[in-house]
Records
---
Amino acid sequence: MAINLKSNMIKYGIVIDLKRCYGCYSCTAACKAANNTPMGVDFAKCISGETGIYPAAQRQMLPTLCMQCEDPECKRVCPTGATLQNENGIVTVDKNICMGCGYCMMACPYGQRHKVSGWQTYFPQAKEELDAYQSYAKGKWEEKYGYGIASKCDFCMQRVKDGRLPACVESCPAKARTFGDINNPESDVSILIKRDRGFQLNPEFGTNPSVYYLPAR
Amino acid sequence: MTLYDPHRINYPVKRTNPEKGVGVDPKWQRISWEEAMDTIVSKLKAVYEKDPRGLYWQATTVQTSEIRFAVPAFMKAFGFKNYWVSGGGLWCGNGAHFMNGIMHAAWSVIPDWNYNNYTIYFGCSKGHGAGHAALQTAQFVADARARGMKAVVFDPFLSTQASKAHEWVPCIVGTDGAAALGMINVILNELNTWDAEYLKLKTNAAYLIQPDGHYKRDTKTNKPLIWDTVDNKPKTFDDETIKDFALLGEFQVDDTKCVPSFQLFKEHVKKEYPLEKVSQITSVPVSTLRRVATEFVQHAQIGSTIVIDGKKLPLRPSAAIFFRGSQGHVNSGWTCLSIDLLNHIIGAADVPGGAFGHGPPVSMGYPDTGKPNTVPYPCPDGLMVVKGWVYDHKPYPLSEPKPPTRLDLHDMFPCSVYNAFTICSPDWEKYRKQFGIDYEPSIMINFGSNSVMTMANAQQVTENFLKKFKFIFSFNIIHNEFTEAVADIVLPDTCFLERYTPAVTFPSTFCHPTGMDHWVWQIRQPVVKPLYERRDFNEVMLEITKRLGIQNKYYESINNLIPIRYGGEMEEKNKLNPKGDYTWYEICDRLIKDRFGDGKGLEEVKKTGFIKWKAKVEETYWRWFVPVRVPIYFEYFIDAGKKLRKVTTDFGRPDLFDMSFFEPLAQWNPCPSHTNKNPEFDLWGFSWRPSFHTQSSTQCNPWLDEISVNDPFVYLIQINEETGKKKGLKDGDIIWVENPLGRKIKGPVKLVQGMHPQHLGIAGCHGHWAKGQPVSKGKGQFFDDLIIVDEAHTDSLTLGSDACVKLKIYKCNE
């Protein structure tokens, strides 16, 4: 999907259809591959749970990511101004300004902020210090984020600039995720939100997230 | 992660510890490729010259696209017949593939998600990250769900697909076939509904049956007879003057009273599968069985039609499908058939909205070449015969029961796909001697399989089967419980990012899951050169055949197997010259050129990675375009059972298996777990598969391991919360899980609502212990250790293994 970034009217959003999602965790794994997150850090975490009483029990997956709130708490509490919001509504962290106070981690009501103290290998038992892939991933992580400072999902902005979809959207085998401009009433995301009863997670937090969910049933 | 995994095997290694066994340290020593090949070839040469029959190929179903050439071609060239995909008996589909072949000319069955409105799933997750073409089908089923398709899932636990369904029907494990027959009874005898046209023209429902159970045949042509209700006389089933077929009634032909097989079937399900009895077997309330059967029929819209690409076709938007969960039991074959018969009585087989053969049944080929081409055809009795097939005998006509020549006695049995009860038994040697196998197991070649972990109890499989081989060499990318227990030499294979695969899916067109979309033939190509000293399995096998001096036979075998497995004869110019010398790349190139034409060799196809072309309505919805029938009455089983009994009796085993499984009408038979009344063993145990793991091969991927750790169910033993509380258990308690033979495993319990109260579920193939897999070591539980493989736990019809077991649990105080 090619999106015209020049238009400052675009507000990026993702719609996650819980009817389509069957809980395969492809988004979690694809995000790791695309963003080179170290062990223990998931920008696209999925929360699996059970409700109801046998035999009327239900299991449901809730895929999450940064909600790219219009009024983000993480930005409000950031004492250094490291948390930025671009013209498309994407919340980012300037690694050169962030001092790693962790206020944003406490403030984010969706738990989508992370702080990594150091690279943690996925293969602690390996003889070599790091295999080629993890050396690459570590380098990429340090280039973009680093240690002791805040990190978060940015809807794969570099991929989007390159004309690709966010990794979690592209990888979903059930096509449960749709990416687009929620300001444009004609966009797929806007139509889905309107037509299929789209809702924000915990709207009472009052941050107006750009991630919408469609009901599971 | 797979390509650069630091635990990958990068160099050939040999075992220096002469001791073999579960948990033994092989004390690997790195060796050169030259030493590895010299050793392997000299061992093979000695066996080849003395007696090649003792070789055994063991392969994995995880990489089926890789084993289409080397395995069968090497077997033919070398001269041996012993082969199995380890786990085939447990993890693959003995009953499913056999029955799908007979009823749909396909390897698998899925709903037509384009038009389906109602699917009953029996113990399977197709379209939910499981089954063939798992990712494509996930999108199809998500589309169908989004437009309102209803799904009802029979399963002991709230599985992936049950959690996405409109209704989860908890049932006792292994009773799916009984549920299906009960619902057929409702449809035929309470609702009095069936698709008469389909039954008359596309099945043997109208064939007249004599009192001895056989077809009444025409004395001149020997063809089965039907009764024409208009002309009021018998005619051969294919007589062009037939005005209408009798499905019900009793008719006098010559001196014999005959009834249509449908009449027998209808009476049979009424007598044997009344709902009260079925409810007791399955634990599903009578009202639920009746309601689901009724909804199934209502959604089928019998009589409705649809026009697709100008062709008017029956529209039957109901389907019943099955796979691993329901078929991994003693009643394997009949369970699959009983479930599929739901589709056939409402005419919902390979028509829009119904149950689809997936694999595929009908392909008329790429427009330029007509290949791959496969179209089923009728036998003299009118029943469907598949054209190409993926293993050595077709599902129909049955192979003749005969004295076995294989080490697992496989070829004695007419309906077997794979079998485990002989080789995994302490009595393997006794079986071999009793059934006249006059040679010993000698060398095993293993391609990627981990049979120590995928064939039930590890100790039993290792001691009774794998340790009987004098030499084992194995192709692997990572060490596992198999290599460490028994392999003498392990060769570092390439992974999917380092090799060419000329046809990725298996059979070649699983990439066309359903509907009127495109056929897609995919290839796989390397993104990097093999790292370290890794070498592609196919290249290594070519070198082995050259060193053995049998490459001419190997090439001829490849020429011969391509038409069967890839749909159509090869052109002479593309065949491998037995006197030639080919690389794997050249062989791939020839296959692709032969299927798609000179301009479409590997170089060309590499640019896109696939070739696609539009599907025809006659291919996708083929049932009414191909003049074949399928059985609802298995008349030919009668003789097959008698012949098999004669063979086993001749060898002194008149009691081997229950020949009542070879009766012609669908039946349900209990597993030993259903007849175990010991109150101590009060839970049925079964294994399940998380949608993101593939058999025993992915637990070592640290991303997937991390996901598994974070998931609330994957690494835990799930039981129903009420049941757990009654036993004084709480979340996280470490419990012992013990089977009736005293074998036990332990792990943390998770009390859940999504579990039948009398069941216990564990994610399969976890609990690795191989030193070479530190990521997966000790994570989750090894359920298979609890499974029992023996004659009593084997399907008498298809030799499928029973994967359920009665268990007792108690707190671990260690």
---
Amino acid sequence: MRRIAKFATNPVVVALVASLAIAGCASKKTPNNAADLGLGGGAGAATPGSSQDFTVNVGDRIFFDTDSSSVRADAQGILSRQAQWLNQYRQYAIVVEGHADERGTREYNLALGARRAAATRDYLISQGVASNRLKTISYGKERPVAVCDDISCWSQNRRAVTTLSGAGS
Amino acid sequence: MKHVIKAILLIGAMASGMTAFATFPARALVEIDVNKGNVEPLPIAITDFLSGDAMGAEIAGIVAADLQRSGLFAPIDKGAFIEKISNPDVAPRFDDWKVINAQALVTGRVSQEADGRLKAEFRLWDTFAGQQLAGEQFFANKTNSRRIAHIIADAIYERLTGEKGYFDTRVVFIDESGAKTARKKRLAIMDQDGANVRYLSDGRSMAMTPRFSPTRQEITYMSYESGQPQVYLLQIETGQRELVGNFPGMTFAPRFSPDGQKVIMSLLRDDGNSNVFSMDLRSRTTTRLTNSSAIDTSPSYSPDGSKVVFTSDRGGQPQIYVMGADGSGQTRVSFGGGSYSTPVWSPRGDLIAFTKQSGGQFQIGVMKTDGSGERILSTGFQQEGPTWAPNGRVVMFFRDQPGGGGPKLYSVDLTGRNEQAIPTSGFASDPAWSPLLD
């Protein structure tokens, strides 16, 4: 079920994710999809402009290479779509969470998570999102979404998640 | 923690025959050379202290456990004892102890004074030389019986090794519970042997990286309490908390200066990088020590306060750097294969403990302050965060094993020998050793 987190960033499989959510198959261990974010209910067609719409149809997160805070080419497309959506729905304030995998020490990873969040924020600003809507926070390696002892989890935990707050969620 | 009053016990009952024996000792006085590569633990007999209740045996048990965990002593099973000590004020029958190869012997007594205080006294004997090596008595509040035992263990350790002990100390750490994806992290404090655990925060917000003040019953730590990670001070006895500084962004990785008057920490810059600052706790003035477009974090002062060691990835990956306490002369000192972080200066000043990542493993090691003489003390799948015992002979850290579910605390001798698990009821991380208690 962890895979769903990745699929959710791919529009091709959005319908699949949504139908799984409806069918109640979404694992409770997978907090990355719309259903587990408490946005479920009639998740078949997310209301345009809702945070569920953002999470499912746009993709709320990007992933990073080991020890890197460079926005990868595959992440740039996601952030551009995020910016487009955020520029359309301006009622939201935005907090970008930066995360690191567990293969680093605690304090360094807090700093690394912060640098990833800042790189993501800066990319969104470069795509026209107003800087005064954006805040960042680092969770270092303290809030993994995937738990295992190998690279399949670590690559999912090296992430920046764009979360919406303020009006309209 | 109130003071434990101490007095030196002189031997009043040394028989004249004993004196002659002591004048011509068959061998040098018993001692342990802690700097030898491979120390054979010293066989020592620790008799139950005389008392009217169970406390005498309890104190002897705590002393024996402390000494055993140090790896330098091998307490002898009580079942092998021949002489039953009935008067700890007179010399024991040394032959009875030599025959079971007890090279050192501890006797003692614990009693309650009229005012309710505990009085504990002990004598340490060199059985082969037939001499008293130490004798002291202590008065303390009855609730401090474990402390009395640790103080006695420290006195024995110091007399036989020539080094300060570290048993009358505490460890502040993070108690971890709950799923890894939503881990609850609470500040906690315990004696160095795992006893007397007390929780210092309720776990509603994540707390991490606590460190002791060298001079006060106070810790500095980082918490998500305000929503943003920030550095706080906490008075251990009163529970009073205080934010350190008024910075716009994340502050983290705090440590005290050796005089307890400053906190050094990282401050996040707007560009996403982190630099090292110090803040004077009295004047509240802050001083920037690094200004790089990189991550500079995990600063730790040298014990004389003149230098700071820290982690930086300015060279591409995390490595260890040393600078003057004013930020001058920033110099990389780690050059082994892999990355290095969490440097902590030894209380003796001669070594830096670190976490090294290399070949998919995490290692705890030490190096000289110029980076030479690297020695790895422990290797594991995931381990980090060394902290020094106040005598600079033992390092504690935390380790997460695959499938283990969470981290636990371990200690290891400076020689890399004698790794010991520190008992905690739950998962535990981020240990920080206190100075010796007053």
